[in-house]
Amino acid sequence: MLFTNKKNSLFRRWNGPLTKDLLQKPAQYGLGKTPEKVTPDATTQSICGFCATGCNLKIHLKNGEAVNLSPETNYPVNMGMACPKGWEALSPLSSPDRATTPLLRNSHGEMEVSSWQNASQEFATRFKEIQSKYGKDSVAFISTGQIPFEEMGLLGAFAKFGMGVSHGDGNTRQCMATSVMAYKQSFGFDAPPYTYQDFEESDVLVFCGANPCIAHPIMWQRVVNNKRDPKIIVVDPRATETAQCATHHYPIKPKADLTLYYALAHCIVRDQRIDHSYLDQHTQGFEEFFEFLTDYAPEKIAPKTGLSVSQIEEFARLVSEPGKRVSFWWTMGINQSYEGVRSAQAIINLCLMTGNIGKPGTGANSITGQCNAMGSRLFSNTTNLLGGHDFKNDRHRQKIADILEIDVEKIPSENSWAYDQIIEGIGNDKIKGLWIIATNTAHSWINQKEFTEKLRSKLEFLVVQDMYATTETAQLADLILPAAGWGEKDGCFINSERRIGTIKAVKRPPGEALSDFRIFRLLAHAYGVGEMFRKWDTPEAVFQILKKCTKGQPCDITGIDSYKTLNKAGGIQWPFPVGTELRGSNQRRLFENGKFYHSNGKARFLFSAPAQKLAEEPCKDYPFILLTGRGTSSQWHTQTRTQSSDVLRKLYPHEVYVEMHPRDAEKIGIKDREKALISSRRGQIYAQVYLAPTMQEGQLFLPMHYREVNQLTHASFDPFSRQPSYKASAVNITAPLS
Amino acid sequence: MSCSSTSLEKSLYSDLNLIDQLLGEQQQLQTPVATFAKEHSSLPDQEQYYRTLIPSSQPQEGQQYAFEVELDKCTSCKACVTACHSLNGLDENETWRDVGTLLGGEEAPGWQQTITSACHHCIDPECLNGCPVAAYDKDPVTGIVRHLDDQCIGCQYCVLKCPYDVPKYNPAKGIVRKCDMCYSRLNEGEAPACVQACPNEAIKIVTIDVAEKTRQGFRKEGFLIGAPSPHLSLPSTIYKGRNLPKSAHSASQKDVHPEHGHWPLVAMLTLTQIGVGASLAIPFLQSSTFITSLISVVFVIAGLGLGVCHLGRPMGVWRFFLGLKTSWLSREFAIFGAYSGALTFLPIITFFFPDFSYLRLIQGGIAGLGLLAVFTSIMIYVDTNRPFWKFSYTATKFYGTSFAATFALLSLWSDSLLFPSLFTLVMITKLGLEIQGTRKSNSPEWSPAQHSAKVLLGPLRCLFRARIIMGIAALLLMGAIPLVAFSFLLLSELLERITFFKAVYHPRMPGIATHSHH
User: Fold this and answer.
1) Are residues A119 and A132 in the same domain?
2) Are A551 and A579 in contact (CB under 8 A)?
3) What's the pLDDT tens digit per position in B438-470?
């Protein structure tokens, strides 16, 4: 005992009601001391609902309701840790901005409280009217990577098979579409190959356009745990938090990745550091790639990359060291690009040619963004037919129709439009009704004003389903459906390493808010197709249906019995077909046998010449390149949730700010903390200037979380993935008028 | 017709059924809870990770506990802040740990470092030294500086005294609270919340040698470039693991952010000082001594009364004597107590015994006590070691207010030109000092003085201008219409005192900007 309990005297009050307020008490359930006022009487576990790391949070319950939480120690993902968003995951649920009843816009244009009865009838009537007037496909939906995949599956099935719409997409288009397409084309299936253990097993870790220190702090934990004295390489125009921890930082020019990785491949081929036997047995297309690489000698292309020849040579040697385990990890710096798919495949190519795949500590690894982006990739029924199937494939359609016991004709045989095509469809009057679920298009969509100012008025009916009635998008809606959030519902998420885990209802939502699952059931009923979804009555029932859809697929999870199995195992990574046994640390990576998912079992080298110019080159009027990205670990996307936690709000600047290099500021005559005017061809905003020596000259950085930012961004898209290129727009910055 | 109406009714009925069912289901929680609740185990699960991050034995003689932060492992995730908040059960907007950023380096792209900090459990805690009621305790064994919440009177002097902005006032509770290094966790071999929660094991509890850390602190070394110097309070925290460039500075250094205005203190200081000024005029007066002594009493009592509004929990003030040894605030309570007590008798004596032979002596003695009381007020701020509150500035301002009042009242009751001239001299000195202070605003190097100047010319410019203009008005009118001039003086001095609080540079650990000002 270090402290004895001191007794109150007349002159000194060691105890009393105020001291008691902070008293701690040993809790059970594997917890240490917790505040006495929230001592739990039970605990449960739930996967965090922010990012795709998939941390398991131990929810402290009192009388059945969550009163506090702490990260779960015995879970192979986070091992007792969470980032601030995870720690604060319960706070956004009690925000005063929560939507508590359906709201319907009246004839005066004001939002009026409505009943579920009214709201669901209005939903059905208005969308049916539009469909009968303009065709079935004139209604579309935009969904999310933030809800359990049972909800995604029900939404996708109801919209496409029940309402008969063809076009639905998710906000996952904004973050993951590039990786999906890159993997699909290269490996034959959308399959991030790694397990988090690979962070610890690697000798050389290359972070490409990724800032895990703040974007995925709990993955960074694994890098810190690496005992192999690894080389850590960061490829990023900015000297980010992660670059500060790197052994090598390569500050490339924005969007020079593709050229750079081809140059690395050139050096590796030239120096004969390729794994011939792996190439022969497990890949195809290397000869053509070999030819292609002749043009990428570092001497020739170094100026395009912003790096010196010796930096490129050094980088190439580091990632091709024989006997070393090399892993590549990328996020939005690669994905959000007009040539993102090829950039991701350039990384995949580097792994294939050096044999750095399917082994511990290796891999071409896309780190996912949202908590259930990986779920949406398999089960949202948007880009893929349920279970990673193909809408255009007759056999696939028949298989799914049989499992769901529906008429195969109900399943569209054409692919859905991507997000940008749906938006474009509004512009050319193809889409007249839109249903947005748990995403904030009016904030996050590229070249934001196009949607908010030009296109909104062309929609005859806009339905927004969200936790909050106050989001930028909800404010534009004709009908707002109040949704329960994470913590108020059940279901499953799939994390970045393909691990499936459950979330739990531990709080009662305010007012009449319903889980998205229940809203979909109600709407299906109102649409007159309730019978089709008779068996889809609980999330776990839907889990069983979706599970059947994965049979025989690379993502086969038919070996998972129930939610209980998932909870007991500490999450299960796909694939998990019937008969699979979990081994040791519950960590599994793909391609250990060198078999890929193309019909010949081989991975493909895919490549094409990089664009000669940025999608929007800087010019005399707009001389700066605008980069956007995550601001801090305590901010999530459009901040609808993170801004409603007081503690998280303390940890980030409240108003939009722009980072610029001090020398640029001096040239223009802008001082630290002044408000400057930033303009692009699409709009102009004011932002407070933060002088940041971590920037390169000629570049500006705006965190994506502030609503103004996407007024500036230039809408260009990857031709394969249709992912928007948020990270390079031409802008100007000027001093405020004094 | 009837058929279709029946089917509509039926459908409505089933709609309502379904809605009721869904709403009912949505409010049910118990099933998953019961299924997945876990059993008790003897040691906390997390113990396997933090076992090596806390000392295995308690400090020896000459040692104490300290936070140790490995900078190369601190990567800006900020989990420590939220873990501290959740595991300590703090109020919704309350945090005991802060995270900020240091920037620096010459090359582009340059250098940055995240800094996590909580209470530094100083070797010579300024909070403890300043507390008038002994609401702080430095544990003799561990060196942990604890705040006794039930002892606190909410005077917030520790907030002004701490060089690192650690104690935070909680208005709802009326007290200050701060990090206690989770002493009750350490007590049972558990790691503090922040230590448990850092994914990279960047925060540890270590045992330090007090004498060595003291030596370093007095040499202004061994702490952190870009943070306030350690020589005042000898913080125990160790920052290591990364070399910092000499150019390292807080990312929030250039924030031009006015500090709290503390209106009860503004009123208390201004009114008591005017009151003291009035009592100072009495010995020099031939007539009107009664009304002047009444003015003095009214101002002093009103000032003290309003000053009490500053306290979150005034009922414990009677324990003020516990801090007399080190706290100027205790001394202020004591001297002002004596002064106001004596002062109250002055109008009575003056009225009933105008011919009492020792009256002048008593009047003079009370005035002297008043000057001593103002001296304690001055020292309260001087003792915070903030450049904007250094002795010469603060004494000029505070005594200036008293003397201005003295000469204003003497001008009011007498025709002599001497008093308006002296009044002019005092006001010119005061206003001159304030205007001169703003000249630093354009110097190339950042300094606390530059910060104050920028606040005065930036967010406070209207207030500051009004202060100067009213001061000049008082000065010009004193010869002609002293009563109007006196009103201007009062307003002008109140404004001066607001700027005194708002324009000071509050030293703190490297921060981030959460508010913008332009």
Assistant:
1) yes
2) no
3) 998 888 889 999 999 999 999 999 999 999 999
Binned at pLDDT 50, 70 and 90, residue B514 comes out as low
More confident residue, B511 or A305: A305
Say whether both A628 and A693 belong to one domain. Answer: yes
Q: How many residues does chain B have?
A: 518
Contact A14 B150 (CB under 8 A): yes
Identify whether A608 is part of a domain: no
Burial of A266 from C-beta contacts in 10 A (0-12 / 13-18 / 19+): buried
User: What's the DSSP call for residue A717?
Assistant: B
Question: Which is more confidently placed, B357 or A157?
Answer: A157
**Is A668 in the same domain as A531?**
no
Q: Is A393 domain-assigned?
A: yes
Residue identified by tokens 């063809």 is: A166
Q: Among residues A342, A367, A392, which one ends one of the domains? A: A367
Spatial separation of the C-alpha atoms in residues A618 and A189, rounded to whole Å: 37
Instruction: Find, in chain B, the residue whose alpha carbon is nearest to that of A491.
Output: B32
Q: Is A153 helix (H, G, I), strand (E, B) or coil?
A: helix
Of the candidates B404, B405, B400, the one whose C-alpha atom is nearest the C-alpha of residue B434 is B400
Q: ∠A258-A259-A260 over CA atoms, to 5°?
A: 90
B150 part of contact set with chain A, CB < 8 Å: yes
B8-13 own/partner pairs: CB under 8 Å, 24+ apart: B12/A117
Question: Has residue A641 been placed in a domain?
Answer: yes
- Which parts of A36-148 fold into alpha helices (H)? 84-87, 116-134
The per-residue pLDDT for A1 is 46
pLDDT digits (tens, 9 = 90+) for B222-248: 999 999 999 999 999 999 998 888 888
Asked if residues B297 and B343 have their Cβ atoms less than 8 Å apart, the reply is yes
Work out the average pLDDT over B259-288. Answer: 94
pLDDT per position as a tens digit, A195-216: 999 999 999 999 999 999 999 9
CA gap B107, B245 in Å, rounded: 11
Do residue A647 and residue B73 have CB atoms under 8 angstroms apart?
no
Is the domain of A430 the same as that of A556?
yes
- Residue whose structure tokens are 């919440």: B149
Range of the domain at A206: 177-367
Residue A388 and residue A482 in one domain: yes
Per the structure, how many domains does chain A have?
3
Which CATH number goes with the domain that contains A660?
2.40.40.20
Same domain assignment for residues A379 and A320: no
Closest-approach residue (CA) in chain A for B41: A30
pLDDT band at B33 (very low <50, low <70, confident <90, very high): very low
Are A220 and B199 in contact (CB < 8 Å)?
Answer: yes
CB atoms within 10 A of CB B383: 20
* % of chain A at pLDDT higher than 90: 95
Looking at the fold, whether A157 and A138 belong to one and the same domain comes out as yes
Let me know if residue A600 belongs to a domain. Answer: no
* Contact residues for A262 (Cβ-Cβ < 8 A; gap 6+): A292, A293, A296, A301, A346, A607, A610
List of chain A residues whose C-beta atoms are within 8 Å of the C-beta of residue B184: 3, 23-24, 33
Distance of residue A632 Cα from the nearest chain B Cα, in angstroms: 8
Please name the residue of chain B whose CA is at the shortest distance from the CA of residue A74. Answer: B45
B444 touches chain A (CB under 8 A): no
CA angle B199, B202, B206 (to 5 degrees): 130
Which of A315, A340, A367 corresponds to the end of one domain? A367
Which residues from B are below 8 Å from A116, CB to CB? 19, 22-23
Q: Which residues pair with residue A208 across a beta bridge?
A: A235, A330
- Cβ of B38 and A29 within 8 Å? yes
Task: Give which of A193, A203, A279 is closest to A587, Cα–Cα.
Answer: A193
Q: Are strands A488-494 and A499-505 parallel, antiparallel or unpaired?
A: antiparallel
User: What average pLDDT does chain A have?
Assistant: 95
